[in-house]
Amino acid sequence: MNAIVFDHVSKHYGDVLAVDDLSLAIEPGNTVALLGPNGAGKSTSINLLLGLLTPTQGTITLLGNTPAQAVKAGQLGAMLQDGALIPELSVKELIDLVRRLYPRPLDLDEILALADLSDLAARRANKLSGGQTQRVRFALAIAGAPRILLLDEPTAAMDVESRLRFWASMHDYAAGGRTVLFATHYLEEADEHSDRVIVIAKGKLAADGTAAEIKAGVGGQSVSFAIGDQPAAGLDLLPGVTAVEVLAGTATLHTSDVDATLAGLYRGTTLDVRGLQLSGADLESAFLALTRES
Ligand SMILES: Nc1ncnc2c1ncn2[C@@H]1O[C@H](COP(=O)(O)OP(=O)(O)OP(=O)(O)O)[C@@H](O)[C@H]1O
C-alpha cells in the first residue's frame, strides 16, 4: 500500500488554482522533497494532506486512509511553517505533554535524542534560539511516532550548523522505514536529503524522479557568456539547447550537449562571444528549466 496518494487533486482558493489536477503516489519508507518556487502549491498540498484543507476535486489517501482518519490514528506528524510553543514549559515538559496525546508515542528520551535536544531538556521554551525552537517543533512532530512525517520548509531561517543538525535528525527518524515528505525551495536540500524529488510549479507536476534523473532529463549543463546588447534571437535553436535565459547582459544556454551547443554558437552565429563560462549538471539549471516550461 502506498504511503501517500494524490489522485487528480485540485484546490481552488476563489479564482486562484493553487493545486491543478495533481496525481502522484509515494511508497512507504521514502524521503521525498517537494520542490517548487514561491506560490507553487507546496504548502497547500501539505495542508491538504493534513486535512486542514479539503480538495476542490480529487482524493487524497494516506496509508489507505483519508487525511482525517490518518490524523486520528496518529499516523501523521507535521512541522508547519508557524506554530508557537507554550513559553512557560520546559522543552521536556512540552514534549511529554504532546506525546501523551497519542496512542503509541515514542519514549521521551528517544524523542529528545532524535531531535538532538537531550542537553536542552530543562530549558524553558521561551529561552531557545531560532534553530533550537525548530528542533523542538520537530520533536513535537515525531512525538506520536507517525509513520508519515510532513515538513513544510523545516529549515527556513536556520543557519548552516542548525541545518546540518536538523537533517541528521530527520534521517535518523526516517531510517526506521518511515515516510517523510518535505517542502523546500532549497535545491541543494532536495538534492542531498531526499530519495526522490517532486517538482511542482503553478500547482502542476513539473518533474518527478531522483535528483540525478531530473538533472539528466532536462540537460543539466549550461553555457553562459556576456551577450551585452546583441540579439538573443535564435539561440534557443542551437543544437542541444533546452532553454535560454538572458539576464543583465548575460546569456545562459541550458544544454543537453555542451560540445554541439558551443560548435553551433561559434560557427552558426555571428555573435561576439565574451566571458564564456561552462557549468556542469546541477539541479538549479534543471529546476529553472522545468519551472519555466510549466
Ligand atoms: N488562503 C489563501 N487564499 C487565497 N490564495 C491562497 C491562499 N493560500 C495560498 N494561496 C495562493 O495559492 C497559491 C499556492 O500557494 P502555496 O502557499 O501553496 O505555495 P507554496 O509553494 O507553499 O509557496 P511558498 O514557497 O511561497 O511558501 C499561491 O498563488 C498563493 O497566493
TrEMBL record:
Residues 4-227 form the ABC transporter domain. Keywords: Antibiotic resistance, ATP-binding, Nucleotide-binding, Transport. SUPFAM superfamilies: P-loop containing nucleoside triphosphate hydrolases (SSF52540). It is a peripheral membrane protein. Signal peptide: none annotated. Gene3D superfamilies: P-loop containing nucleotide triphosphate hydrolases (3.40.50.300). One of its GO terms (molecular function) is ATP binding. PROSITE patterns: ABC_TRANSPORTER_2. It comes from the Bacteria. InterPro entries: AAA+_ATPase (IPR003593), ABC_transporter-like_ATP-bd (IPR003439), ABC_transporter_ATP-binding (IPR050763), P-loop_NTPase (IPR027417). The keyword ATP-binding applies. It is found in: Cell membrane. Pfam families: ABC_tran (PF00005). The keyword Transcription regulation does not apply. SMART domains: AAA (SM00382). This is ABC transporter ATP-binding protein. It comes from Nonomuraea marmarensis.
